[in-house]
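Lab notes, practical 5.
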Amino acid sequence: MAVALLLGALGATVVLLASGRVWARGTAAVGGGSLPLTADGRAVTGLPAALAIVGLAALVAVFAVRGRSRLLVSGLLALSGLGAALAAVLAADDRQALDAQAARTTADTAARVGALTHTAWPYVTAAGAALILVAGLLALRFGRSWPAMGGRYERDGSPRPRRAAVVDPDRPEDLWKALDRGEDPTR
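Output from the prediction step:
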């Protein structure tokens, strides 16, 4: 349980941090020169960061639910890790974000980025997402035996029988409390 919790939290942290880093660099031709452009992971694809947040919520929910609900939430945790990893890997060599930025910067809709380079941050994001996936798979496999939040404060829905409080006639506060409850303190 501790391993899954640690892997899920670490994976989500890595995804959120790595998706904010620069994933691609390039230059746009402006007039007679060139303008350097960069795009972070959230500009390229916002899906890994969004799925990491879903994974964090599912990680917390795994410990709050029991039975079939835990199985469902564990599956959601695993799927969020898988989706974030696939989104990061598929967007690793994407150039659309930089082309859109070049078009905006140069005010030319046909502008394209030249000298395009990609960093390793998409793959770091995918590695963090793989940790979320492993946490989800661990929860799917071993989650049935993990403890759940206690049902100490849960009610079963049946009405509770009211006990009449013992009234001590020598204590005035007991007499007043009985009156507040609608009881006859002289009985």
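Observations recorded by the TA: The chain has a mean pLDDT of 85. The radius of gyration is 29 Å.
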